[in-house]
Design brief:
This protein is mainly alpha-helical. Among the domains are: 107 residues, no CATH class; 103 residues, Ankyrin repeat-containing domain (Serine Threonine Protein Phosphatase 5, Tetratricopeptide repeat); 94 residues, Ankyrin repeat-containing domain (Serine Threonine Protein Phosphatase 5, Tetratricopeptide repeat, Alpha Horseshoe). The protein contains 34 helices and 2 strands.
Length: 590
């Protein structure tokens, strides 16, 4: 699970030379003279877009030329294999020579050990397609650890090695780190990949992601190849060591932190606080007292170091910061003081430290601490606190992240609206339409999910950036138990198809029979992989949901539907390679 959801970015358009868009015809092997005066063939290089068909034609042409004892053909054959090297011209002309032998000669001329290896190489390039597609294929191969495809693409297109694109506009090396493929990362680095190129999404190096994801072997490999262990300048203003330590929901790995410090990294105030390194905190503040008021980025809700000490449950760091003069009433972007943060997260020991130091008891902390008299008093002072636009209207969303069920229940009793939409500045990835159920799903807070659903939380709510439902957010975050819990609620037929829940499709059709042929445009928001014209059957076909498609057909779904371009569902099934679906759609109606 990542700390944010990263938007899919369009692939950058690369200039494609005209010659690469046409069928490639190959020249015969070039020849030169050796120092002893004998003529020899020079190794041939494949063009950027080789054609397997043209290579086959070359082999056939060589086979025919050998049959008529063409001198140049015989010379090429002799140089391709040791078993022909010492034959006289007459012996070679008379020797058996199959088409497979001709194919081997062609492969050897392009410096491949066998025809099968040359075929595999060319097929990988043919599958990659245009220059933009080549870059995408390179990154995909790196992310999947597909070394054969990665090697073939690098052999043919070495200049693409540091090209950025795709999600987060990253390099192939970034993708190898994301895919946790040490062999792919090693191959890329050996071929000259630059470990210090930043992606666009986070302005981060591959090393930032390696430490965030606790991938020590990749960390060590990158550092051994010159990766910058300081890495300041990322958009989150944390540096590499901050990525290793300071994310809210990712615990730091002490081994990684020790390795970074031993290889040039130095603590900043956030990493020192996150690790509870009191000596480093004191040294940093002594050097610059302003470090006490240094704020995190918006993705981390502009927290102060004192807030981070609470988030990371670092008692010694909390006390040290207070001793050094940190103001106890610092307010972050969510309007939380450190006491609010501690109480809402259930860190009662830290909350008590802050109360003992004189922290003011405000509504969030009062509710979380169960101070009913204080809650009543504070609501009398601000009766609109939980109303739309009120000071604490979105507090239930913050509570849904980490608070227990009692806190959620207390907020609802106090007037919090379970389906309130978040302030776009505070939601994950600045996502408009994010609800408390999205928050609970993202963080896997099962108890909060249960309470929210019992009180009518909308399981169908889609936020506007990714068009994700709460179940979708849980799934993206790897929270399978949370996802499955939400999918038991009153989801729509789109989501039932998306997660292959045939049991839910049937019950939804019983309750909402009109949904069987309802175009998705009628839902307003729908998944990014769907189209406005899609009906449940079209979506099931597109996603290859055979059992669901069969059920929909049996229940009377319209099989005659066509796309705006006139394409039938049968054609879509054929293109997707689903012959079973195509056969279903071909069957006559009852």
């Amino acid at each position: 699970m990542g700390r944010t959801r990263s938007a899919e970015r369009a692939q950058p358009t690369l200039a494609v030379p005209e010659s690469t868009t046409r069928a490639i015809f190959f020249l015969p092997a070039m020849r030169t003279q050796a120092s002893n005066g004998k003529e020899i063939s020079m190794p041939r290089k494949l063009p950027p877009r080789p054609s397997l068909e043209q290579l086959r034609k070359q082999a056939k042409a060589l086979h025919k030329a050998k049959a008529i004892a063409d001198p140049e053909a015989l010379a090429r054959i002799r140089e391709a294999n040791a078993r022909w090297k010492d034959m006289s011209e007459a012996q070679l002309a008379a020797a058996p020579f199959a088409l497979a032998d001709a194919q081997l000669v062609i492969a050897r001329e392009f410096e491949f050990a066998s025809w099968s290896r040359l075929q595999a190489h060319v097929r990988a390039l043919e599958a990659a397609g245009t220059a933009a597609e080549l870059g995408a294929s390179l990154r995909d191969a790196a992310g999947k650890g597909d070394l054969a495809r990665l090697r073939a693409l690098l052999d043919a297109h070495p200049k693409l090695i540091n090209e950025r694109g795709g999600e987060g506009v990253r390099t192939a090396l970034h993708h190898a780190v994301f895919g946790n493929s040490e062999p792919a990362a090693r191959l890329l680095l050996e071929r000259g990949a630059d470990p210090n190129i930043r992606c666009e999404g986070d302005n981060a190096y591959p090393l930032h992601f390696a430490v965030e994801k606790h991938r020590f072997p990749l960390l060590r490999l990158l550092v051994e190849h010159g990766a910058d262990t300081i890495g300041e300048g990322d958009y989150h203003e944390l540096g590499v060591i901050g990525w290793a330590t300071a994310w809210e929901s990712i615990p730091p790995d002490p081994e990684i932190v020790s390795y970074l410090l031993a290889h040039g990294a130095r603590h900043n105030i956030f990493s020192a606080v996150a690790m509870g390194d009191v000596a480093a905190i004191r040294a940093l503040v002594a050097q610059s007292p302003a470090e006490l008021e240094r704020r995190m980025d918006m993705g981390n809700r502009r927290r102060f170091p004192l807030h981070l000490a609470v988030v990371k449950k670092q008692r010694a760091a909390l006390s040290t910061l207070l001793d050094l003069g940190a103001r106890i009433e610092y307010v972050d972007e969510a309007r939380f003081t450190p006491l609010d943060q501690a109480a809402m997260a259930g860190s009662m020991d830290l909350a008590q430290i802050l109360l003992d130091r004189g922290a003011e008891l405000r509504l969030p902390a009062a509710i979380a601490l169960g101070r009913t008299h204080d809650v009543a008093r504070l609501l009398r002072e601000d009766p609109d606190a939980f109303k739309p636009g009120g000071r604490w209207a979105q507090l239930i969303i913050r509570a849904a992240e980490f608070s227990g069920p009692d806190v959620i229940e207390s907020l609802i009793r106090a007037g919090a609206e379970v389906n309130v939409r978040d302030d776009v500045r505070l939601a994950i990835d600045s996502t408009n339409g994010y609800t408390a159920l999205h928050a609970a799903a993202w963080h896997g807070n099962l108890a909060a999910i249960g309470v929210l659903m019992r009180h009518g939380a909308n399981v169908r709510a889609r936020e506007e950036k990714y068009r994700g439902t709460p179940a979708g957010w849980a799934d993206y975050a790897g929270r399978k138990e949370a996802r499955d819990l939400i999918l038991e609620g009153p989801i729509d037929i789109i989501e039932a198809i998306q997660y292959d829940r045939i049991d839910r499709v049937s019950s939804i059709l019983d309750a909402e029979p009109a949904s069987i042929n309802l175009p998705f445009r009628e839902y307003g928001l729908f998944p990014w992989d769907a189209e406005p014209w899609h009906t449940p059957l079209a979506y099931a076909v597109m996603r290859g949901r055979e059992r669901i498609a069969q059920l929909l057909i049996e229940r009377g779904a319209d099989r005659s539907l066509r796309s705006p371009q006139g394409e039938s569902l049968n054609s879509i099934a054929h293109k997707a390679g689903s012959l079973i679906l195509a056969q279903m759609l071909d069957m006559p109606s009852d």
